[in-house]
Design a protein that fits this description.
alpha+beta; 2 helices; Type Iii Antifreeze Protein Isoform Hplc 12; 286 residues; 24% strand; single chain; two-stranded antiparallel sheet
Length: 286
C-alpha cells in the first residue's frame, strides 16, 4: 500500500516537472525568436579609432546588427554614406558613426572640414609664454591680448582684442594631447569670425600677442578696458593728452583823449594879442 502510494506521488511529480519544463522552454524559444528578429537591423560602426580630420575609408568602418531600440539618432545603415567624409570629432573603435561627427558631404577632410560656414581659421605665431606654457590645446578656449603703442610717442598699453576664442589646432595636430601633456608648438590656429580675423591679423602686426587660457564653462564676455603703463606706477601721473591750443580773445585798449593846452589870439585894430590857457585836467576846473 505504501509502496503504491509512493509510486503514484513520484509519477505525479514527474509529470508536473515535465509540464513546467515544457512551458519554460516555449517561453525561452519565443523570447529568443523575438530577439533574433530585433537584432537583424544593420548599423555602421567604427572598425578602428578615427582621429579628427581623418577621411573615412572602407577599412575604418564595418556593419553590425543591433536591436532597433539601441540605435541612436543619426546612425547610418549604409557604409557608402560615410566613406570619404572627414571626421570632425574623434570616434573610438566600435562606436556608432553618427552624422554630427562627420563633416558635410564633399567638405573634404583635415582642417577645412572643421571650419563651420561663416567662420575662419587664423594661425598666430606663439612661444612657451604666449601659449601658456603649452597648455593651450585643441578644444580649449582663450582670450587674445595685444600690447603696443598707439601713434608716435604714445604710451604703451595692453588691450583684450578677442574673448572666448576656440583653438582648433596646435602646430599640425587637430587632436587634444590628453596623454602627453603640454605641447610647445610654434603656431596656434584659432577659429574666429571674418571681422575678428582682421583684428587678429592687425594685432599680430602692430603689437605682441599674448593668450589667456579660459575655463571652458566660462563663456561670458566682459567689457575690459585698456591697461596703460601709468597704471603700474601709481606715483606717476599719466601724461596729459595734447589738445588744441586755446585761443584767447584780446581786447585793444584805446587811450583816453588828452586835453592839450590851447591859445586864443585877439586882434584889436592893429594890435594882436595871444593868450595861452593851461591844460584842463579835471571837469571841476571850469
Amino acid at each position: 500500500m505504501n509502496r503504491r502510494r509512493l509510486l503514484m506521488i513520484g509519477g505525479l511529480a514527474l509529470a508536473v516537472g515535465l509540464l513546467v519544463s515544457y512551458a519554460v522552454y516555449n517561453q525561452l524559444r519565443n523570447l529568443a525568436g523575438s530577439n533574433s528578429n530585433a537584432a537583424g537591423v544593420a548599423v555602421v560602426v567604427a572598425a578602428n579609432d578615427i582621429d579628427v580630420g581623418a577621411k573615412l575609408a572602407a577599412k575604418d568602418v564595418r556593419v553590425v546588427n543591433v536591436p532597433p531600440s539601441a540605435i541612436p539618432p543619426g546612425a547610418f545603415s549604409n557604409p557608402a554614406k560615410v566613406l570619404n567624409r572627414g571626421a570632425i570629432l574623434p570616434i573610438s573603435k566600435g562606436e556608432f558613426i553618427l552624422n554630427n561627427k562627420l563633416a558635410a558631404l564633399n567638405a573634404g577632410a583635415g582642417l577645412p572640414s572643421l571650419i563651420p560656414p561663416g567662420m575662419r581659421a587664423v594661425s598666430v605665431r606663439v612661444n612657451d609664454v604666449v601659449s601658456v606654457a603649452g597648455f593651450v590645446q585643441p578644444g580649449t578656449r582663450v582670450d587674445v591680448m595685444s600690447t603696443g603703442t598707439q601713434g608716435s610717442g604714445g604710451e604703451a598699453q595692453t588691450i583684450t582684442v578677442l574673448q572666448n576664442v576656440a583653438v582648433i589646432a596646435v602646430g599640425g595636430s587637430l587632436l587634444e594631447r590628453l596623454t602627453s601633456g603640454e605641447s610647445n608648438a610654434p603656431v596656434i590656429t584659432l577659429l574666429v569670425s571674418p571681422d575678428d580675423a582682421q583684428r587678429l591679423a592687425l594685432a599680430s602686426q602692430e603689437g605682441r600677442i599674448q593668450l589667456a587660457l579660459r575655463n571652458p564653462l566660462d563663456t561670458k564676455k566682459e567689457g575690459i578696458g585698456a591697461t596703460h603703463v601709468s597704471a603700474l606706477y601709481p606715483g606717476e601721473k599719466a601724461p596729459a593728452a595734447e589738445g588744441k591750443p586755446k585761443l584767447h580773445r584780446a581786447t585793444a585798449k584805446v587811450p583816453a583823449p588828452v586835453n592839450a593846452p590851447y591859445q586864443v589870439e585877439m586882434i584889436r585894430g592893429s594890435k594882436r594879442d595871444e593868450t595861452k590857457f593851461p591844460e584842463d585836467k579835471s571837469p571841476e576846473s571850469h
